[in-house]
Write a structure and sequence with these properties.
Elements (H helix, E strand, L loop, with lengths): L1 H27 L13 E5 L3 E7 L2 E15 H6 L4 H14 L14 H16 L4 E13 H11 L1
Antiparallel strand pairs: 1-3, 2-3, 3-4
Length: 156
């Protein structure tokens, strides 16, 4: 009988020791961090290609064709009653039309970071909440008025 009690105590000590050892070993490792992805709570909204006239000396000198992707808070987007594409496309148009893009022949010198920041800030101010997290440029190009006439003739 004493043998059985001793075996029981011995098994209990081994079990408690292994449990304690495993807890000490696990606590020595850095805690596993939950993945925090920037894109996890963000939804992308692509605008259609917008055509913005560039006016110089009182007449249209050409058109800017641009397409943007807005990264916006997914939860706040669901609460909006107006489709966000309308506001975001309008803000893109306004930023290009009223901006300093008058000399579009030198597009490589234009600060796109300033343009996208301005679009983000204006859209958030208009909506009243910081919903737009970032603005990405899908494409942007300038077509002079003289080239439009050439393209129109080729299609005929």
């Amino acid at each position: 009988m004493i043998k059985m009690v001793m075996v029981g105590v011995w098994v209990s000590i081994i079990t408690l020791g292994s449990f304690y050892g495993s807890m000490v070993w696990v606590s020595g490792q850095p805690p596993e961090m939950a993945p925090t992805s920037f894109f996890g709570k963000v939804e992308k909204i692509k605008t259609e290609t917008i055509s913005v006239p560039i006016i110089s000396n009182g007449e249209i000198s050409g058109y800017v064709l641009a397409k943007f992707t807005f990264l916006a808070d997914a939860i706040l987007l669901k609460l909006m009653s107006v489709p966000p594409e309308l506001i975001l496309s309008d803000e893109a148009f306004r930023a290009i039309y009223s901006g300093s893009l008058q000399d579009f022949k030198k597009l490589e010198k234009y600060d796109l970071a300033t343009l996208t920041k301005r679009m983000r800030l204006n859209a958030n101010a208009r909506i009243g909440v910081e919903i737009v997290k970032d603005v990405l440029v899908d494409s942007i190009s300038y077509i002079p008025k003289s080239e439009l006439r050439k393209r129109g003739r080729k299609k005929e």
